[in-house]
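Collaborator request, handled under Task 6.
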Amino acid sequence: QVAQVQQEKELIRQEKEVIQQHATVLAEGVSTLAEKSGELTQEIRDNRPLSGNVIFSGFFSNRVDTEFTARKTGLLGQAAETKATRTVLVSSGDQIYAIYHAQDTLLNVTAGQASWDYLYGHMRRGFALISLDTVTFLQSDPRIVLAPISAEQAKDLGVNVYPLAGEPFKFSEAVLVGGSEGYYGEAPFQLDAETPKYVRMQRERFSKLFGKFTPSRGDLVFSKTGEVLGIMVNNEFCLVLNDLAPAGQVTLGARIQDPKNAQILSNLGFQVSMLPPKVQ
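Structure tokens returned to the collaborator:
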């Protein structure tokens, strides 16, 4: 009888083990299903293009004001000039940049010289004020200027930092935003074998327009994923920002007249003159 009781206990223990194993397998299946469901949801989100309204709203919430001020002395005395623009912050690796077209920085890269006695740049948002010490020009197109700032400074500005488009050609349309003028429009873009670093925004096919739409140099272009695709170099071509290798860096402030800066700008001016005519 004792042996029979022991045998029954052993059978019960084995049945419990089997039940536990089934429960474990079931739980793993549910967990896997939930994980796959989450991956599918993320995939659907990643492949669903954002509307121009959403992208423009994001830009409006995260734009920063920048002001460049310069002065020079001439035959008629001192002349001062100020340029104000709006942009966003982008990240490449661990570095954060504000991005501009050279025409909005008062640096005449095309002429290849700095004619100012001083040139200062400041970023402002709310009560945050950040002085720009240096600016960097892109190797791919020296007319595009990056102002490096620290993560702490970006935090002070209180804005989101945009990633560069990981798959810039995932969607055949993009959203062009005029930061200073407050307009946007959606349009398809074309690749051009003669200018592989650029895409041509098909201006004749812009749709869903908002504001006084007049595309021009310095306008930002966002992919339909909401990432920064590039920046307009003229009113038709956009430089794709997938390579932020620098061509040179100049120091702002009173040191703008430093001979080293003048030499860098001279070299950059030559590089700009060698760009394909259609993107100049």
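The cover message to the collaborator said: "The first strand starts at residue 64 and ends at 74. Confidence is low (pLDDT under 50) at residues 36-45. Please let us know whether this matches your experimental observations."
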